[in-house]
Amino acid sequence: MHLSDLITAARDLLHGWIRNFVPFLGWVGELLDPRTLRADIVAGITVALILIPQSMAYAQLAGLPPQYGLYASFLPGIVAAIFGSSRQLATGPVAVVSLLTAVALGEVARYDPAAYVTYAIAIALIVGMFQLALGMLRLGFLVSFISHPVIIGFTNAAAIIIATSQIGKLFGVTVEPSEHQYETVYNTILAAMESTNFVSLALGVLAIALIMGARRISPRIPGVLLAVVLTTVISWLIGYAEQGGKVVGSIPAVLPQFGLPELQLAKVLEFVPIAMTIALIGFMEAISIAKAMATQTRQQLDPDQELIGQGLANLASSFCQGYAVSGSFSRSAVNFSAGAVTGFSAVVTGLIVMVTLLFLTPLLFHLPQAALAGAVIAAVFNLIDIKPFIHAWKVHLDDGLVAITTFVLTLILAPHLEYGIVAGIIMSLVLYLYRSMRPRVIFLSRHMDGTLRDAELFDLELCPNISVVRFDGSLYFANTGLFEDMMIEKVATRPNLQFVILDAEGINEIDASGMETLHAVEQRLALAGVELVIARAKRQLRQPLQRAGFVEHIGEERIFRIRNQAIMYAWSKIEKCDKEGCTQTCPLRAHLPGSEPA
To answer: What pLDDT, on the 0 to 100 scale, is given for residue 317?
Structure first.
């Protein structure tokens, strides 16, 4: 190979590596097409009209002044589009992450309100570092430990908690937070019954009605913007602020200061567990909508690269005084339906947020907080859905139990939401481990159609001399006891048994404990005068058997790819049968086809 070829190969390799790390290089050239550029600009403006008021509402949900929602919407969405693999994912403040941030900072709000913003920024920093590390180490698969039933239960419970947390702002009352969320909601309802601010209630209900109505007509209609504009104008006209109504008030008309605030390391470390929970939940939300859109656009999606994009977005949020962010279901759907082709739409959205911060914030002074509360309630309304619970229950009882348990515990333990989701994860893993400890062990016999089927299920006669056993599961330390007990039990109850054929098609993996148990079973069967034969062993089982010397121990002649070959081998070696004409009438031999696929 010539030097020029080596240089070309190295250049191509470096170019490929750079494009993988900075995915926007794959779509920036498409902006030369005027149609693509126009579509992205229109989509970016459409998303911005929803994002600006929604981000302020979510900042309120997180317990932060509204401008911090705008700070988290300015740069993070652009960074996520540049470094993430999804072209249509809209990143910024979202309801669940905002709620989790408020939960994490509940104690700070009580004993050090001045530090609340500082530690919200610190949580975004930790979330970003954790997501970035997972992406760089290609550990995105860890998110798979949060099963779908856990997400179902948590999302529905979180939606209810989010909605009920806004009741006080909606009715214009304030109560001290209690130890449990349901106690706070109860006290809020009592306070509302005594001293409801009916103007606040009317403005909040109007906001909800406008958003829900616009959503029913068309997802492209910026219902949140309409609600914000109309309620702000009404608030200004009636002098709502002068009447004691709570409004957004003054928002600094400047860009955020870039850099991290002074942080106490010991205090920051206390937020690591909840920040890790936020990182995983936020990424689950982002990757779910990204996958749904990638299926329709047929674009390649890299979960690990998306983790890198989300991690860098959260780091960017922390450096521009924002809080933790994630991909948004609603805004991504609007971005997609508005015709976004590339990530440039997110750049347009970020630039519009920047313009808003610099020039338009005075217009938001009279925006009622009740309207923002209504926007939050309307945003999470679609997250409450009972159908996934029913579906999970129908698919598997365990999945239904996990979903319901996660839902109930999250509601009961709120505001400590992380406990509910951790309990759900542990429960799903324990139930999976329990199922894998007790895999199906079935005995096969010949059906009238010539196939081998479950003898108990189809009420088939068993051969007294040959037993065909199928083990449906990986053979590992947790279920070796069951495997050994079942194999030996059948020998004890069938005195004429001479061969046990292990149908190994269902064994996808074997560990050292499984290998030792298989060897022990073979020896115990041999002592009882029973020969072990293995059929349909997959490559992932056959190779460990060869490496461990098991194949050499029992002999290649006792390993078969096809069950019928194993049966014929056993019949050729039958020494004695207690049934006259057994070789012709045996249930295993009857209707025996000439061949069978492996």
So the answer is: 96
Question: 256 Cβ partners below 8 Å, 6+ apart?
Answer: 71, 74, 320, 321, 322, 357
| CA dist., res. 35 & res. 33, Å (int) | 5
CB burial string 475-505: b at 16+ within 10 A, e below? bbebbbebbeeebbebbeebeebbbbbbbbb
Same domain assignment for residues 211 and 181: yes
Residue 591: inside a domain: no
Q: Quote the domain boundaries for residue 453.
A: 440-585
Count how many domains the chain has. 3
- For residue 415, whether the previous peptide bond is cis, meaning omega lies within 30 degrees of 0, is yes
Residue 516: inside a domain: yes
Q: Any residues with CB less than 8 A from the CB of 193 and at least 6 apart, and which?
A: none
Q: Residues 208, 347: one domain?
A: yes
136 assigned to some structural domain: yes
Q: Per the domain annotation, does 254 fall within a domain? A: yes
Q: What is the pLDDT of residues 342-358, one digit of tens each?
A: 989 999 999 999 999 99
555: left (phi > 0), else alpha (psi -120 to 50), else beta?
Answer: left
> Both tokens of residue 177?
């937070």
CB-CB contact of 24 with 343 (8 Å): yes
* pLDDT beyond 80 at 104: yes
* CATH number, position 517: 3.30.750.24
Do 293 and 352 share a structural domain?
yes
Are 184 and 57 within one domain?
A: yes
Contact yes or no for 93/69 (Cβ under 8 A): yes
Q: CB–CB of 266/260 below 8 Å?
A: no
Helix (H, G, I), strand (E, B) or coil at 367: coil
Average pLDDT over residues 83-108: 89
Q: How far is 105 from 92, CA to CA, in rounded Å?
A: 19
Provide the greatest CA pair distance for the chain.
104
Read off the pTM. Answer: 0.79
346 and 373 assigned to the same domain: yes
40 in the same domain as 28: no
Helix ranges, 303-364 (H)? 303-319, 329-337, 344-355
C-alpha dist (Å) from residue 113 to 120, 247, 269: 11, 20, 19
Residue 113 sits in the same domain as residue 141:
yes
Q: How crowded is residue 254: how many other Cβ atoms within 10 Å of its Cβ? A: 10
The half-sphere exposure of 435 on its side-chain side, counting CA atoms within 13 A, is 11
Residues 270 and 304 in one domain: yes
Q: pLDDT tens for residues 130-170?
A: 999 999 998 877 777 778 898 889 889 988 988 898 899 89
